[in-house]
Every structure is written in C-alpha cells, then in structure tokens.
C-alpha cells in the first residue's frame, strides 16, 4: 500500500486530504508540525510527504532540510503545500529539494494526480 504523510497545522486541510488519500488507497499519516514529521519518519517511510511551510515549532523549510540530510529518507518525495505564493517562496522551496510546490488554495483532484505522477 502506498504511504503518504500529511503535515499541516490546519485541521480542515488535514481532514480533507486524509479523506481524499484514504479513498485513493493510501495509508495516511498525520503530523501537525515538523517535529511530528521527523518523529513519524523514525518508524515509517512514506512514499510522499505533503508539507506545509508555515507550521508551529518546526516549519516546513527546516523539516525539508532535515529530511534531505538523512540518507534513509532519500527516496521520499516531498511536495510543499503552502499559502506562500510568491515566486521567491516557490523558488526557495524547489531549490531546497522539494519535488513540487503547490499553492493554496488547490484542487484535490489535481493534487492527487500530481502525487500519483511523482511516486510512479
């Protein structure tokens, strides 16, 4: 079964994405900030992470930097899912090693298609 980790501090976004990806046949893990992402990665290696940038405690940029430093996590695809829509934000995210950058608001259908394409 494909595994996805959804990291966002907004409850409604988590609920919507969790429902959509469970329905699409994914095993779903939830984190509310970057420190929870890193805790989950100690026991689970998802195929893909949907990562918000603006989260409490440890933000998405710091989380991605930690993920990309660890050899064990090299195969994990990461999509930034953020309300930061500026060109500089998008460039920074991609330069840091995100596989894609999706701005909020987004289409669930397009997002699930993008996830599918990335993990093929």
From TrEMBL:
Residues 3-119 form the Response regulatory domain. It comes from the Bacteria. Keywords: Phosphoprotein. The lineage of its organism: Bacteria, Pseudomonadati, Bacteroidota, Flavobacteriia, Flavobacteriales. The modification 4-aspartylphosphate is found at residue 52. The keyword Phosphoprotein applies. CDD domains: REC_OmpR. It comes from Kaistella yananensis. Gene3D superfamilies: 3.40.50.2300. It holds the Pfam family Response_reg. This is Response regulator. PANTHER family: RESPONSE REGULATORY DOMAIN-CONTAINING PROTEIN, STRESS RESPONSE REGULATOR PROTEIN 1. InterPro entries: Bact_response_regulator, CheY-like_superfamily, Sig_transdc_resp-reg_receiver.
